[in-house]
Amino acid sequence: MKSILITGCNRGIGLGLVHHLLKSSNTATSNIFATCRNPQQAEELTSLAQKHSNLKILQLDVKNFDSYNDIVKQVQDVVGDGGLNLLVNNAGVSSKFTRVNLVKADQMTDNFLVNSVAPLMLTKAFIPLLKQASKANESLPLGCSRAAVINISSILGSIAENQQGGYYPYRCSKASLNAITRSLSFDLKEDKVLVVSIHPGWIKTDMGGKQAPLEIDQAVPQIIQLFSNISQSHNGGFYQYDGKQLPW
Ligand code: NDP
């Protein structure tokens, strides 16, 4: 991967991805664009950027759709004709566990805005740069080194695996994200840009909670390995961090 952009990098899985991409020598990345809502408060990310010149921090609240063109321009100014090889839609929110008697309309709309509308619209904004990367790397097989979009979904978005109920805002917004992945995979097929949904595993983060079985440092290297393994056969599919295919 030459250039990769990840949303929601000030903490959790996004920050873990940045750490491990900077560490891993076999995925030496020329440009890592790490977006976050408040760069001034992103101390760990800022300290990494001071040590690694290939890490660029960009301010982005994914709900601010009007700022997308500006973000694309900032990336374009750095990558030039090389385009953007990989867009990772990672930023996400999860309303508290809700049974039907507790669910509120604003939880539904907020989870939808961040978890499904934003990944779709950000991907739309980056299509020219993704196409550019795919063209610039015509000799490479389809995959994340050429041009791809990874949507960080969740097993809770799987309708087939829902044996517990509740969680309406989160489940529905991630099921919607999976539907977006599937449609994008067809819409971007001709442009040779792959689109895949990934369940990153249940990980100890602010969202995953303390009882989660996986540490960030256990799951993230496997997620990065999965990025490297993604090929045409994964396009439009739903996979977990260890490569296992998941039901919709
Ligand atoms: P965290 O709650 O630790 O981090 C969420 C990240 O998303 C933060 O960087 C947060 O930024 C960012 N974010 C939220 N809203 C916005 C917004 N409007 N604009 C920009 N950034 C925003 O969660 P995780 O790291 O655990 O989750 C990352 C992704 O992985 C999510 O999509 C989540 O659904 C998914 N996931 C996580 C699992 C887990 O077990 N941890 C399991 C399955 C899926 P800020 O600090 O500014 O709020």
Biggest β-sheet description: 7 strands, parallel
> What is the string of SSEs from the N terminus onward?
EHEHEHEHEHEHE
| Integer tally of domains | 1
* Number of distinct beta strands: 7
Secondary structure tally, helices: 6
Query: What fold name goes in the CATH topology slot?
Result: Rossmann fold
Characteristics of this structure?
248 residues; alpha/beta; Rossmann fold; 7-stranded parallel sheet; 6 helices; 40% helix; 13% strand; globular; carbonyl reductase (NADPH) activity; SDR_fam; NAD(P)-bd_dom_sf; Fungal_SecMetab_SDRs
Strand-helix topology:
Blueprint: E1 3-6, H1 12-23, E2 31-36, H2 43-51, E3 55-59, H3 68-79, E4 86-89, H4 105-136, E5 148-152, H5 168-187, E6 194-199, H6 216-229, E7 238-240
Parallel strand pairs: 1-2, 1-4, 2-3, 4-5, 5-6, 6-7
The structure holds NADPH dihydro-nicotinamide-adenine-dinucleotide phosphate.
